[in-house]
Automatic annotation (TrEMBL):
Entry cofactors: FAD
Name this polypeptide is given: FAD-binding PCMH-type domain-containing protein
Keywords per UniProt: FAD, Flavoprotein, Oxidoreductase
Occurrences of domain FAD-binding PCMH-type (ranges): 49-220
InterPro entries, per database record: BBE (IPR012951), FAD-bd_PCMH (IPR016166), FAD-bd_PCMH-like_sf (IPR036318), FAD-bd_PCMH_sub1 (IPR016167), FAD-bd_PCMH_sub2 (IPR016169), FAD-linked_Oxidoreductase (IPR050416), Oxid_FAD_bind_N (IPR006094)
């Protein structure tokens, strides 16, 4: 396969491989080239469309090993990519011919139950955290799907089931150990290297390889009321489910929300396996008893769902039940919305979704989801360089397919749907809102786009994602990564000397 490296970066040569072997000789780090058995596992991604052929894979086991290799790669001007959980559908953790860090052997999770802390390796995924935390009935704000990486999700913000109560993953991140472009190992927190800590929380992929995270942990009851409701997508049901969403999740004129931080989930469209037809899907996670959950979500139950899987389930299980399989082709494209949703818009989007899948065998697994939560905590906090906070919610436009020849067309569909959301925001956001709700337009309070940077974006640039924070990020980038070694996701240009 031909290499399409950035002009300024060099591909990995056989000479680099042998020099790195020498440098890592006395360590436990593993090097993998395309002829090695585990190479394919290292370059595999959640979306096959994001796979690229790395010139060399380094699988470190310690921060010191990462440091040796980062320093060497920067000096040699190699193209560098870092893989945590491999979920970026934008290809941000892949390199075509360059050097790839696969952090798969840095997945330890330690629980300090006295201090209520999780100490998490840079390559762990959220399933690793759930498993370690479950015996202590502790949890933190992590991803909603177990095999998503802690690294990428946290460094770009991090929404989870507990965001309604505690904010984003970056809001409860206490410390991060990172290997900088010059190989220095730095611990960043509010107390130490506070400016770097600010940058890491939102734009972290641009500043180094994070080898350890320390998160605040919270008590959770062992079981949570959770499941999925499915409704026939008749216009009548679309109208009524949309109204139920508005009643349950919109902030009212007194600044209150019915779910009160404890209820979260979404509303959207999918074709559930076995049903062979598009349905309205309403996933619900409620941190409380079944009786309490049934009362809060009564509007939905009263609509008589065709299928309900609601029950009390162990906390760790809720990160498994909305998990599309690893290894298909997908684009997880983002968009944004404000409440109240207009039923006519939801109906229109359903028609688009149905048209995309009908008679199209390769699009059946695709999902369109309005993610729903109590946004007040996320809005109230302001940790880090993350610039997309607001009372808006995220939309997941997720075509999922298998045939490479569909790559361009299916991404185009996602772009087309994203345009619909942009227009809806521009034309209708801010309608019927009470005084407690800020009016959200396409640009938010920091003049950043409302789109979540951890989702796939084709048109947005770094300044769109970081808004007013971009200039400060540039200054910090100049200090911490002047050669822009870490440049794969919403790259921040260092300032010229
Ligand atoms: C099925 C699925 C579910 C998702 N659910 C959620 C969700 O609930 N909440 C949410 O907020 N987002 C969610 N996302 C989006 C998710 O935040 C991004 O895809 C994120 O990039 C995933 O991180 P990762 O480590 O798995 O990805 P990777 O592809 O490994 O990495 C993504 C980016 O992060 C960098 N990176 C990863 N680890 C490190 C590290 N240790 N040090 C430095 N850089 C690193 C990579 O270099 C790359 O730039 C989901 C995505 C998918 C596909």
């Amino acid at each position: 396969m031909p290499s399409v490296l950035s002009q300024r970066r060099k591909p990995v040569s056989p000479n680099h491989v042998s020099e790195l072997r020498q440098l890592l000789h006395d360590t436990s780090a593993e090097l993998r080239t395309s002829t090695d058995v585990d190479y394919d596992r290292s370059v595999a991604r959640w979306s096959k469309a994001a796979v690229k052929p790395a010139g060399l894979v380094v699988v470190p086991t310690t921060t010191e090993e990462v440091s040796i290799v980062v320093k060497y790669a920067a000096e040699e001007n190699l193209d560098v990519a870092v893989k945590g959980g491999g979920h970026s559908t934008a290809g941000a953790s892949s390199t075509d011919g360059g050097l790839l860090f696969d952090l798969d052997k840095m997945r330890t999770v330690r629980v300090d139950s006295d201090k209520k802390l999780f100490i998490v390796g840079g390559g762990a995924n959220w399933g690793d955290v759930d498993q370690a935390a479950a015996p202590y009935n502790l949890a933190t704000v992590g991803g909603t799907v177990a095999d998503t990486g802690v690294g990428g999700l946290t460094l770009g913000g991090g929404y989870g089931w507990l965001s309604g109560l505690y904010g984003l993953s970056i809001d409860i991140l206490i410390q991060c150990t990172v290997v900088l472009a010059n190989g220095d190992v730095v611990t960043a927190s509010e107390q130490n290297n506070a400016d770097l800590f600010w940058a890491l929380r939102g734009a972290g992929q641009n500043f180094g390889v994070a080898t350890e995270f320390i998160f605040q942990a919270f008590d959770v009851s062992p079981d949570v009321y959770a499941g999925l409701l499915l409704f026939e997508p008749t216009p009548h049901n679309i109208q009524r489910v949309t109204e139920a969403v508005n009643r349950t999740y919109a902030i009212n004129s007194a600044g209150q929300i019915k779910v009160a931080g404890r209820g979260t989930g979404g509303m959207g469209f999918m074709r559930p396996p076995g049903l062979d037809a598009a349905m309205i899907a309403v996933p619900i996670i409620y941190f409380g008893t079944a009786e309490q959950g049934q009362a809060v979500y009564r509007d939905f139950f009263d609509l008589d769902p065709k299928i309900s899987t609601m029950s009390m389930v162990p906390y760790a299980e809720i990160n498994k039940f909305l998990a599309p399989p690893y290894g298909l082709r997908a684009s997880m494209k983002g968009a944004a919305f404000t409440l109240p949703l207009r039923p006519a818009f939801v109906q229109k989007l359903f028609e688009e979704y149905q048209k995309f899948g009908d008679g199209n065998d390769d699009a059946q697994g695709s999902i369109l989801l309005w993610e729903l939560l109590d946004t007040r905590k996320v809005t109230e906090l302001d940790a880090g360089s993350f610039a997309n906070r607001g009372t808006h919610g995220n939309v997941l436009i997720c075509p999922i397919w298998t045939k490479p020849e569909n790559d361009a067309a299916y991404r185009e569909w996602a772009r087309h749907i994203n345009e619909k959301f942009k227009k809806e925001l521009a034309d209708h956001s801010g309608e019927e809102v009470g005084p407690a709700v800020e009016v959200t337009t396409i640009r938010g309070r920091k003049k950043a786009t409302q789109f979540y940077g951890n989702y796939d974006h084709y048109d947005e640039k770094s300044k769109d994602i970081f808004g007013d924070n971009y200039e400060k990020l540039q200054a910090l980038k100049t200090r911490y990564d002047p050669g822009n070694v870490f440049n794969k996701l919403f790259s921040i240009s260092p300032l010229a000397n």
